[in-house]
Design brief:
By secondary structure, the protein is of the alpha/beta class. The protein contains 11 helices and 12 strands. It has 3 domains: 81 residues, Winged helix-like DNA-binding domain superfamily/Winged helix DNA-binding domain (Arc Repressor Mutant, subunit A), CATH 1.10.10.10; 110 residues, Periplasmic binding protein-like II (D-Maltodextrin-Binding Protein, domain 2, 3-Layer(aba) Sandwich), CATH 3.40.190.10; 92 residues, D-Maltodextrin-Binding Protein, domain 2 (3-Layer(aba) Sandwich), CATH 3.40.190.10. A 5-stranded mixed β-sheet has the order 4-3-5-12-6, with helices on one face. It has a 5-stranded mixed β-sheet with strand order 9-8-10-7-11. Strands 1-2 form a two-stranded antiparallel ribbon. Helix 1 packs across helix 3. The termini are far apart.
């Protein structure tokens, strides 16, 4: 069957390739179903139908998941090329859109959205009522090339080479703990404290390497994949956490333990894909966000205490 990709095989449409790609990337039907927003049985049924139509087995089924056959690998490689071309064409067409209307997908860190930007997005929507904002608060780096987002506000010191934009400012962080926690543990040295740390999804944050370097034996009692989770854990008196100054300084229940630490610094960037830079609605929001974030520069750089 492996070598019979042929004679009676029917053409494959993009929807089929898109589904096969998802299974190849995720390795399981459930993972592919989640990424596509469909149910497990739909993916199972359609993969079976595609294999029957092509007359070839694309995956070996194992208890731990689906593994590509040689034919599956061939479709995977070709499908990635097709996907890249389709997405590139989509970006170029959108990039010629001169109308201030349509959907804008914006990736923004959760803490920044809730504590600073939401009121500004309200003003933007009032000024541009025909633009529909889709806010994505994932702390993972979404792929601008694949149009997972049109604009990304990223905390990073090394923006991807496939994106263009501008650095807004430095993003300062330092160590915080609640007054209640310090009342019980304030006489301990940092090595002996309980630490609240970022989970794997936030591994890019400098505090991960900083703690290993300075306090390699420190006890981590909690990890969170969001800064808001770490912030709430600190408020609950669970331990010490590195938090952005803009998030923790306004809350009188938290106390700064150090001045902003250079080694914990990052940068705030406003980015888009080069193909989208002349799209009217992208330009409008990029300029709007630059001005909005500039008004909070002192907070973001830890100056307003």
């Amino acid at each position: 069957m492996e070598n019979n990709l042929c004679m009676n095989a029917q053409p494959v449409d993009w929807n089929d390739l898109h589904l096969v790609l998802a299974v190849c990337r995720e390795g399981t039907l459930s993972g592919a179903a989640r990424s596509l927003g469909v149910n497990h049985s739909t993916v199972f049924r359609r993969i079976g139908a595609i294999e029957t139509r092509l007359g070839v087995r694309l995956f070996e089924r194992f208890s731990h998941g689906y593994v590509m056959t040689e034919a599956g690998q061939a479709i995977y490689e070709s499908s990635e090329i097709i996907e890249s071309e389709v997405l590139g064409l989509t970006r170029k067409l959108i990039g010629r859109d001169l109308h201030l209307k349509g959907v804008l997908r914006v990736a923004v860190p959760d803490a920044l959205l809730l504590k600073i930007l939401m009121s500004h997005f309200r003003r933007f929507s009032q000024s541009y009522p025909d633009i529909e904002l889709e806010l994505i608060t994932s702390n993972n780096y979404l792929n601008l090339s694949k149009r997972e987002a049109d604009i990304a506000i990223r905390v990073t010191q090394s923006p991807t080479e496939t994106a263009i934009g501008r650095k807004i400012c430095a993003l300062k962080s330092t160590l915080y703990a609640s007054e209640d926690y310090l009342a019980e543990n304030g006489d301990l040295n940092f090595q002996a404290h309980h630490w609240l740390m970022p989970a794997e999804e936030l591994e890019h944050l400098p505090v991960n390497q900083w703690l290993i370097k300075n306090y390699p034996g420190a006890k981590v009692i909690l990890r969170s994949n969001t800064l808001l989770g770490l912030y709430e854990a600190a408020l609950q008196g669970m331990g010490i956490s590195s938090l952005p100054c803009f998030l923790a300084d306004p809350d009188t229940r938290l106390k700064r333990l150090l001045s902003p630490v250079d080694e914990l610094d990052s940068e705030l960037w406003l980015l888009t894909h080069p193909d989208l830079r002349r799209t009217a609605r992208v330009q409008a929001l990029m300029e709007f966000l630059k001005k909005a974030l500039d008004t909070h520069k002192n907070q973001l750089e830890g100056v307003d205490i």
